[in-house]
Amino acid sequence: MPQPVTALGLTTGHAPFVEEARHRGELYIEQAYNLYSPENHDSWRRLYQRMQPRWERYANDHFLKGIEALDLSPDRVPRLADINRRLLPLTGFQAKPVSGYVPGFLFFDCLRRREFPTTITIRPADRMDYLPEPDIFHDVAGHVPMHTERAFADTLVRFGDCAHTAVEITASVRDPKERARRLTNIIKAMSRFFWFTVEFGLMRGPRGACAYGSGLLSSYGELEHAIQSAEVQRYPVQLEWLINQGAEIDHYQPLLFIVDSFDHLFELVDQLERWMRAGKLDNVAPGLPEIAESDLRSFLDAPVPA
């Protein structure tokens, strides 16, 4: 006999509520907070408890202020409605619950509207250290505190603008294969940029390099490794490297880039768009990440800006 939904909770990979929404083709959903099991809340508590001292030591000050501003609970999975009520007056951003992977253009378009696609499931108790897909701890505890900082939030919006620019500048390419080729390269460049900044970025701080990337801020092991390990190469950020450096997800990052400030990061996104318009993203270095057909199709099917 199948288990009732409430017994399974909202565990990554074992969440009937989410799986049924995906089956119905529903990307944007509700959090369904009453479905979280005691085990789900315990996973959040354990994750938060062990990350807190590492945040205090290795995270940037804006992130720490964001944790305080959002009043995240250390003991229970947070309600997105409560987070959004505190976040909206600060930067206009909102956490938007989703049923799973959001194709590239739709994801960047959400950022442009100051909406952050947010996974509602949480990793199981036996997968505390690594999960290849996002969960609510990565999205809420890793990403969302940074959305309380105005300059960073504005940078995400600017990044969303770049997706619309990509559609605009390739719309006039008559050969469908050539348009797909150019878009594939542009998407690869944007993905690498996002990976090495928003996900795994470092910033100069008064005590040396500190983390602002969510992939670091939600990983107990990699956060310390990124700052302390002699195995990691840390370089001042250069756009040429960001768009041509392969991004791999299955191990600690051996190469990280340091920005001076979020104003600096905003300027880099501006530069990325200028390079896009100049054709400098049409032929980036091959390699990871591979661009999924759903991501490419989301750009090909997007409406051309008027």
Secondary-structure map with pairings?
Blueprint (H helix, E strand, L loop, with lengths): L4 H4 L7 H8 L14 H21 L2 H10 L9 H12 L2 E5 L5 H9 L2 E5 L16 H8 L6 H21 L5 H24 L2 E4 L2 E4 L2 H4 L2 H9 L4 E4 L2 H6 L10 E5 L2 H16 L15 H8 L6
Parallel strand pairs: 1-2, 3-6, 5-6
Antiparallel strand pairs: 3-4
Helix pairs in contact: 3-11, 6-8, 8-9, 8-13, 9-14
Structural description of this entry:
The protein is α/β, with parallel strands linked by helices and 306 residues long. It has one domain (28-300): Aromatic amino acid hydroxylase (Phenylalanine Hydroxylase, Orthogonal Bundle). Helices cover 52% and strands 9% of the residues. The protein contains 14 helices and 6 strands. The strands form 2 sheets. It has a 4-stranded mixed sheet. Strands 1-2 form a two-stranded parallel sheet. Strand 1, helix 6 (104-112) and strand 2 (115-119) form a beta-alpha-beta unit. The longest helix has 24 residues, at 176-199. The chain starts with a helix and ends in a 6-residue tail after the last helix.
